[in-house]
Design brief:
The protein is of the alpha+beta class and 118 residues long. It has a single domain, classed as Alpha-Beta Plaits (2-Layer Sandwich). 31% of the residues lie in helices and 40% in strands. The protein has a four-stranded antiparallel sheet with strand order 2-3-1-4, covered by helices on one side. The protein is globular and about 55 Å long.
């Protein structure tokens, strides 16, 4: 298989999970706008968002940039491995983001529990 065929059929894409913490001062509308922009960045670079979750406002165990809480977001997406660096850099440059972490998602296959003998 050639690299062109792999790219054409999206076989070169990996699944990633990203947790993003944004400033607590943002309104729900601003958080929604941020999520739309993050998803647009992924799709414009050939990726595909498979899952999105707003985990809500949570307190930190210690201060981060003189802030005690933040709004947590979770994105699961498929993209080329080289895109992750671009995505992380865009998040670092965004003033609304306090912290972020993107990692390769690992599919875990769970075996069903054995039947209980009676």
């Amino acid at each position: 298989m050639t690299l062109q065929n792999a790219k054409k059929n999206n076989w070169y894409m990996k699944t990633y999970e990203s947790v993003i913490i944004v400033k607590p001062q943002l309104s729900d509308g601003e958080v929604g706008e941020f999520v739309v922009k993050a998803k647009d960045l992924i799709t414009k670079n050939g990726g595909e968002v498979t899952s999105e979750e707003r985990l809500g406002r949570r307190k930190f165990t210690h201060e981060v940039n003189h802030v005690r809480d933040g709004f947590y977001l979770y994105l699961k997406f498929k993209a080329e491995p080289k895109f992750v660096k671009v995505f992380e850099e865009a998040l670092k440059l965004n003033e609304k983001v306090l912290r972020s972490m993107t990692m390769c998602a690992v599919e875990v296959k769970v075996k069903p529990a054995p039947a209980v003998a009676k």
